[in-house]
Amino acid sequence: MTSPTAGSRYHLLALTGHAPTAAVRLVRAVRAGATTPVVLVDVTAADQLDVEALGALARLSMLLRTTGGGVVLVGARTAAVQLTARTGTAWLLPAHHDVADAVGFLPPSGRPWTVTELAPECGSALLRPTEGG
To answer: Cβ of 105: how many Cβ atoms within 10 Å?
Structure first.
């Protein structure tokens, strides 16, 4: 997440409800409409994050890293942070207490970081997977 190509904007998206299902929906939304490769995922309202949900977010982070961004978890409980450490995905899913801490983690670009909305499907800045997805 140190690439200067990350720009000065990020998406702030909430993960709510059943974590595995919500994570898959969130990944689809980002693939369809992200206009910037940095996604902060607020997980405070999600049910317990499990391997399936964290796996979906880790795969999204790998995709976003190809365009200079990544996924940052906001409000993850201790158990989720420990799970990313045990599975070796903590580097893909850095966790922060709140949005202010997460934004402070983002690389400086000379401009303030601001939230941006997801774009309609036709304006995606992300690479589309060639198989499945």
So the answer is: 13
pTM of the model: 0.82
CB 99 within 8 A of CB 67: no
Classify residue 3 as exposed, middle or buried by CB count within 10 Å of its CB (0-12, 13-18, 19+). middle
Q: How far apart are CA 102 and CA 94, in angstroms?
A: 9
Question: What DSSP state is assigned to residue 17?
Answer: B
pLDDT tens for 47-64 read 888 999 999 999 999 999
Is the CB of residue 127 less than 8 Å from the CB of residue 67?
Answer: yes
Supply the DSSP string of 26-56, one letter for each residue.
HHHHHHHH-SSSEEEEE-TTBSPP-HHHHHH
